[in-house]
Amino acid sequence: MADKTDRHNAIREIVTAKRVASQEELRRQLTKRGWDVTQSTLSRDLRELRLARIPDDKGRARYTFSESASSDGDARRLEAMLPQFIVGVEAVQVMIVVRTVASGAQPVAEALDYAAWPDIAGTIAGDNTVLIICRSVAGRERALRRLQDYLRA
């Protein structure tokens, strides 16, 4: 466990000290520090550290720490970021496809997961698309209306 903690500390230091745009770039930085990690280990580390790849003010992707969602207040803060990322939504059976700005899907999926909307069973995120699986068609309609409200915000 000490190795994992030390590796997480190294990741925190790297991401805090410089703009890191990709997992491969972060993996190379870790290798320079003596950490030989696989892509799957690095992905798991990023998830555990709550690092998200988002666009900076110039549209370039970078990793940054996302808000913790350990309480209702934190979940509301995560939800507050949705209007900044969502550009479109579409309903398909018991699913919703959410289009986001480039590199916005991970933060949106995380916000939805931690907001714990009762109608949402789970999310799957790519780079600019989130697939939301709802518990029912009626639940999909409720979630769709909430998401559309964010588009209007």
Please describe what this structure looks like:
- With 153 residues, the chain is an alpha+beta fold.
- The protein has two domains: 2-65, Orthogonal Bundle (Arc Repressor Mutant, subunit A); 72-152, 2-Layer Sandwich (Gyrase A, domain 2).
- Helices cover 50% and strands 23% of the residues.
- It has helices at residues 2-17, 23-32, 39-48, 72-80, 82-85, 105-115, 137-152, and strands at residues 51-55, 61-65, 86-92, 95-100, 120-125, 129-134.
- The strands form two sheets. It has a four-stranded antiparallel sheet. It has a two-stranded antiparallel sheet with strand order 1-2.
- Helix 4 packs antiparallel against helix 6.
- The protein is elongated and about 50 Å long.
SSE topology sketch:
Layout: H1 2-17, H2 23-32, H3 39-48, E1 51-55, E2 61-65, H4 72-80, H5 82-85, E3 86-92, E4 95-100, H6 105-115, E5 120-125, E6 129-134, H7 137-152
Antiparallel strand pairs: 1-2, 3-4, 4-6, 5-6
Helix pairs in contact: 4-6
Mean pLDDT: 84
- Tell me the CATH architecture of the largest domain: 2-Layer Sandwich
Order of SSEs, N→C?
HHHEEHHEEHEEH
The termini sit apart by 44 Å
Structural class computed from helices and strand pairing: alpha+beta
User: What do we call the CATH topology of the largest domain?
Assistant: Gyrase A, domain 2
Under the CATH scheme, which class of the largest domain?
Alpha Beta
